TrEMBL record:
Location within or outside the cell: Cell inner membrane
Gene Ontology MF, one: transmembrane transporter activity
Transmembrane segments: 59-80, 101-122, 142-169, 176-200, 220-238, 245-262, 274-296, 308-329, 335-355, 362-384, 404-424
Primary location group: membrane
Protein family per UniProt: Belongs to the TRAP transporter large permease family.
Protein name: TRAP transporter large permease protein
Source species: OCS116 cluster bacterium
């Protein structure tokens, strides 16, 4: 059995295991271990299995994951999202469709301290959907705006998925966060334009008087301060990513207690939830490391690159093909799993065609966002249904579909003008 045949066989087995609901960490670990053992024997495979946890434990950069995750968890239980929604609504002055646009803007601001798409969609569903329905918005627009806004949680820094990608691809977390900022702002604008267009028929002509703008803005000072200190401090070179994450976690606790937005009991529960989430991520990353060892040994990535280069494929055709594959995978796989399974295979291919890995990381996150709101299996859609059971699932599907236009337009912009993604990273190098 040739190494390449073994690689394709193991990939097929991996897909089958995931489809039958075997946990991703178990599937990756088993396929990686036995695949490696088939090439180099069980002794070498055992050494690889033993070294993966040690390497991960020694990775200083991985400490940002639990710290930023905890910061986002504190923000989620502290009611910051309600203040953000009120401030966004006040700034938009109650015009037609303002609540749907306010939901998107608030999701973007909440994502700046959360880092999770599911947490953003979950939190904003509780805050903004009841307000939109009470104001006479169609259920589809209310659900679609929240589903789309929720995806911003994994693009606007600090993003958990970008952190995982940086660790797997051995890239600077600071550069990735900087690269995500401009695309994140553009996506907020594109989502808002879609919401305004839909609001012509799905929102009332006149809405309730919004809150006064200055008092509403005064309620979000703590969120702005937290973002400026953590992310701004990292961009400005005052903190390393790990230091910024530690400052952010401490700052979130301090601000939540000072504003009496939470209590020690909720903070304790948030800490436990963070431990559960990060523990599962650690196991998946360890298993992915073993799987990566196996893929490298087979030479699969180099073989695919050689075939595409010799076949006359252009870089554009390769990117478009990968976009199609990731959109399909996004309908079935969760974002972190998708990155850990595919990046070991795809990244060498991207590099061989001369694409920047930082640019590709942002593109990959946007493709994952598409999967999150693509009917019928988009994860954000089911989160909204769970939080708002009064909504019909078909209304949620109908509402999410038009918002798919926004990330697709952003992808076209990124392919045509990659410079706007790489400009900020080049400034902080």
């Amino acid at each position: 059995m040739t190494p390449l045949f073994l690689a394709f066989l193991c990939l097929a087995i991996l897909v089958i295991l995931i489809l039958i609901r075997v946990p991703v960490a178990v599937a990756l670990g088993l396929v990686g271990f036995f695949g490696y053992a088939s090439l180099d024997g069980f002794t070498r495979a055992g050494l690889a299995m033993g070294s993966a946890p040690v390497e991960l434990a020694q990775a200083y950069t991985f400490s940002v994951v639990p710290l930023f995750t905890f910061m986002g968890g504190v923000a989620a239980v502290s009611g910051f999202s309600k203040d953000l929604f009120g401030a966004a609504n006040a700034m938009l002055r109650g015009t037609r469709g303002s609540l749907s646009v306010a939901s998107i803007f608030a999701s973007g601001m909440f994502g700046a301290i959360c880092g999770s798409s599911v947490a953003t969609a979950l939190t904003m569903s509780r805050v903004s959907i009841p307000e939109m329905l009470k104001a006479g918005y169609s259920p589809s627009l209310a659900a679609g705006a929240v589903a789309a806004g929720g995806t911003l949680g994994i693009l606007i820094p600090p993003s958990l998925i970008l952190m995982i990608y940086a660790i797997i691809a051995q890239l600077s977390i600071t550069e990735l966060f900087a690269a995500a900022l401009i695309p994140g702002i553009i996506l907020i604008i594109l989502y808002s334009l879609v919401a305004v267009f839909i609001s012509r028929t799905a929102a009332p002509a006149s809405e309730q008087t919004p809150p006064a703008i200055l008092p509403a803005l005064g309620k979000i000072w703590h969120v702005v301060l937290l973002f400026l200190v953590t992310i701004g401090g990292m961009y400005g070179g005052f903190f390393t990513p790990t230091e910024a994450a530690a400052v952010g976690a401490f700052g979130a606790i301090l601000l939540a207690l000072l504003t009496r937005a939470t209590n020690m009991s909720l903070l304790g529960k948030t800490a436990l939830e963070t431990v559960r989430l990060v523990s599962s991520v650690i196991f998946i990353v360890m298993a992915s490391t073993i799987f990566s060892y196996f893929i490298v040994q087979t030479g699969l990535s180099n073989a695919i690159s050689d075939q595409l280069l010799n076949g006359g494929f252009s870089g554009l055709s390769v990117i478009l093909l990968l976009c199609l594959i990731y959109i399909i995978l996004g309908c079935f796989l969760e974002g972190i799993s998708m990155i850990l399974i595919t990046v070991p295979v795809v990244l060498p291919l991207i590099l061989s065609f001369g694409f920047d890995p930082v640019w590709f990381g942002i593109l990959l996150v946007i493709l994952i966002e598409i999967g999150l709101i693509t009917p019928p299996l988009g994860l954000n859609l089911f989160v909204i249904k769970a939080v708002s059971p009064e909504l019909n699932i078909w209304d949620i599907y109908k509402g999410a579909f038009p918002f798919l236009i926004a990330p697709l337009v952003l992808i076209i912009m990124m392919i045509a003008w990659p410079e706007f993604v790489l400009w900020l990273p080049s400034m902080i190098k």
